[in-house]
Write a structure and sequence with these properties.
414 residues, alpha+beta, binds protoporphyrin IX containing FE
């Protein structure tokens, strides 16, 4: 009845790896799901999204209604286009000063559960970026929503929205609370018409001739804030893991940081940026990506029916020895040699195509600067040198990573 699910749930990554080596670049997981692995198949899947495939990320099961999903995708795409200019590199960099304040409010002396601390940091950072002075109460409500989604999205067998369980009720309640809060903020901001606000909401409200409804804005903001919390927090947890595991890399990061000001631009930190890219290659938080077939089609010769699922593992793609030398080793230097660019479509930590991550620039800026502040101002140590186990049950996280952080006596600078 449950097909391969039980074996898969025991060791998700191991199961996909075994199937790949046994059956090759395409194999079926069950009667309605295939898994693809080659860079060209993955790229085709991502770039044909919206047209032939649909992206949906509800943690609850629903009847597969591709017409409804396609209509939702179209509405989302319109809002996404309007929001784009509020998320590009220049706007992201302008937020760096405030990000620094948020960083030092969250990360201090003492022992921390890294994922919990980073979830707190990115929750505050994203609420501030999207809503600035109106962000009060948002990080807490957001965190509640994320905590309610987490157990549902870890489960391979999705529950329907009517399922009588505490988990489903908790999710529905927290989602409603977050949307109500967004709705209240959008209404107040529209009424106040404050032209001085400099945040994503102000860009969405001023979207000119493509005027967006309040409902569109509320849903987009919720989507952005959820996406900008768990994934970057997880990526940063892996960064901390590598900082406490590779003293040679840490020394190079410290050396680069010593010659930069307090709030540098990313271009001043080429080694730090290369390190972040390399951590995202080794440990992509969104390690497994899926699509639903919108209408009968084929992918690399495989016939697919409406409602079928196609999956691929970003983790496996990023560590495939056919495309990467020394694939399991952290080598930031590989990003500093532009003449040895990676093979096409083999590095996709932010996805690709029409549903590529809208926060790519902001996310890279946040991770690079937060790494810079951490190595400049804090000494880190792991309380116990135990091996860290990667957990593939939801986002890819290092399970139970704890570190002790202590402010450096003085920041070393040139
Ligand atoms: C910093 C690390 C980040 C990583 C590694 C990352 C990764 C990704 C990936 C792989 C996808 C595509 C998923 C798919 O194809 O199904 C995605 C989508 C998305 N990301 Fe990010 N992301 C990051 C940061 C952010 C930030 C800071 C924001 C907010 C500004 C953001 C907002 C979004 C949104 C809204 C989507 C959905 C786009 C759509 O479906 O149209 N992400 N992200």
């Amino acid at each position: 009845m449950f097909g391969n699910t039980e074996e898969y749930d025991r060791d998700r990554n191991g199961f996909l790896e075994r199937c790949h080596s046994e059956y090759g670049d395409v194999f079926s997981f069950d009667a309605r799901t295939i898994v693809v692995s080659s860079p060209d198949q993955v790229h085709a899947l991502l770039t044909r999204t919206n047209k032939d495939f649909l992206a949906e990320n509800s943690p609850l099961a629903g009847r597969v209604d591709t017409e409804r999903m396609a209509a939702d995708a179209e509405l989302w795409t319109t809002t996404r286009r309007a929001g784009w200019q509020g998320l590009h590199r220049r706007v992201a960099q302008a937020h760096a000063e405030r990000l620094r304040e948020v960083f030092f409010k969250t990360v201090g002396d003492g022992e921390m559960d890294v994922l919990a601390t980073m979830t707190d940091f990115f929750g505050r950072a994203t609420a501030d970026f999207c809503l600035s002075a109106d962000a009060e109460g948002v990080p807490e409500t957001l965190a509640e929503n994320v905590a309610a989604i987490d157990p549902l999205s870890r489960d391979s067998l999705q529950l329907p929205p009517w399922w009588p369980s505490r988990r489903v009720r908790r999710f529905a309640r927290s989602r409603k609370r977050l949307l109500a809060l967004m709705s209240d903020i959008v209404r107040r901001r529209r009424q106040a018409g404050d032209p001085s606000a400099q945040d994503l909401l102000s860009v969405l409200l001023a979207s000119g001739d493509r005027e967006l409804s309040d409902l569109q804005i509320e849903r987009f903001l919720r989507g952005i804030m959820l996406a900008a919390l768990g994934v970057p927090a997880t990526a940063f947890t892996w960064i901390v893991y590598e900082l406490t595991t590779r003293p040679d890399v840490l020394a190079r990061l410290e050396a680069e940081a010593a010659s930069a000001g307090d709030v540098p631009v990313v271009e001043e930190l080429p080694y730090t940026e290369a390190f972040v890219k390399e951590v995202l290659r080794l440990w992509p938080p969104t390690w497994l990506i899926g699509r639903t077939v919108r209408r009968e089609t084929e992918l690399d010769g495989w016939r697919l029916k409406t409602g079928d699922q196609v999956l691929f593992s970003l983790y496996r793609l990023h560590r495939d020895p056919r495309w990467w030398s020394d694939p399991d080793r952290l080598v930031p230097e590989r990003w500093l040699e532009p003449h040895v660019a990676p093979v096409r479509h083999t590095y996709l930590p932010f996805g690709a195509g029409p549903r590529v991550c809208v926060g790519t620039q902001l996310g890279m800026m946040q991770l690079t600067l937060a790494t810079f502040w951490l190595v400049s101002y804090m000494d880190l140590a792991r309380p116990q040198e135990t091996a860290i186990v990667p957990d593939f049950s939801g986002l890819l996280v290092p399970r139970d990573l704890r570190v002790r952080s202590r402010r450096k006596a003085a920041r070393q600078s040139a």
